[in-house]
Each structure stands twice: as C-alpha cells, then as structure tokens.
C-alpha cells in the first residue's frame, strides 16, 4: 500500500505542517480578526489545531473543511468541546456552504494542493462583500532543475510551485484586492506538533525522513508568504 504526504500528516496528527508553523498561523489570524467577522472558514483544517485556537479568542461561528477522512476524524475528536465549530468532510469545490455567507477565510498551505484558480474563485464566492482571505503559501524564489521540481511536486501532490508574482497574478484574477504581502520566517525553535501511535506503519517514518531530506535539498530556492486578500466590491451594472 502506498501512502501520500497528506496521509503521513494525518497519521502523525501534525497540527502545523505549513510554512512558518504556529507563528505564521497567529500572524495570519492577527491580521484577519481586525476585520468584522461573524463567521470564519478554515480551508484544509487538518486535525483542527487552528480552529481550536480560534475558538479560544473569538465567539464567531467557525467552519472547517478537509478532504482527508482521517484529518476530519481527528478534528472532530479534538474540537468536540467547542459548540461553535462545524466540520465538513469535503473538497472546497463541493463545500455545502452558501455563497456570500463567510466573513473570513484562512488557508494554510492548502490552496497549492488544489486547482489554484478554481479554489480562489470559490473563496471569492463564499465571502461576503469586502470579506477577507488569508493565504499562507510556499513560493518558488529561484528556478529549479526540472527533475528536482518534478520530484518535489510529485511527492507533495502539487501541479507546480508558483513564484510570489505568480501567486499575486492568480489572486488578482480571482477578483481579490491584495491588502498585504508578508514574508514569513521559517519555523525556528518550534517543537514539531506530532503524536506517534504504537501501531503506526513504518512506511510513515520513511516518508517523514524523505520529506525532511527533500525540503533540505530545495530550501535555498523556497520562500513563503502570507497573502492578505479582500474581496472586491461588485461593479454597478
């Protein structure tokens, strides 16, 4: 049986696998909650760590969506105590939430794993007028050899890595105004949030080792950014 990178994250119950870790999450949230927010959607919510933190600092209705069944299972167990949280096992494209019903969207290194253009358009549809989307994303700072680029994308399930400028182009094409672009520092001194069950398959440890080796190889060519985006108002007809 073959396992994916996302399977590994779910198996180890890693709560902050995205660039910048928990520090990046808190930075994104600090930007997001300065805007009016009665409802917040966490796209690719994973095991629910970010939603759990949000539930301690806001009374807003919180929604989480993840396409991985094991992630949602962990999230439900972790967030059962919070009545304000609603979880969906779904892709973002099939998410059963009404258009223009969400104030803020947070996506932590998730959009890259989808059809980026379609997902950004969906975020725009879900947001109320002037709603906010905060995207934490890995970016390509320097060109890679095709073989290494393909290896990286194949392992992580990406179509390709985008540069900062390519992200800006995609975001603008989805009818967002970009209010801030913040460079994120790599995780520094942060303990990996991980749980190891006694019955975990050895293949997951092999995947973890391969992940770290690949990241170390490609790190000089990577950056990461927080993109703070606001839905543009409708043009008068």
TrEMBL record:
Keyword Repeat (UniProt): no
Keywords, comma-separated and alphabetical: Methyltransferase, Transferase
Superkingdom of origin organism: Bacteria
Entries under SUPFAM superfamilies matching the protein: S-adenosyl-L-methionine-dependent methyltransferases
Ranges where the Methyltransferase domain occurs: 40-131
InterPro entries documented for this protein: Methyltransf_25, SAM-dependent_MTases_sf
GO biological process: methylation
Record-linked Pfam families: Methyltransf_25
Gene Ontology terms for molecular function: methyltransferase activity
PANTHER family reported in the protein's UniProt record: TRANS-ACONITATE 2-METHYLTRANSFERASE, TRANS-ACONITATE 2-METHYLTRANSFERASE-RELATED
Protein name: Methyltransferase domain-containing protein
Organism: Amphibacillus marinus
Origin organism lineage: Bacteria, Bacillati, Bacillota, Bacilli, Bacillales
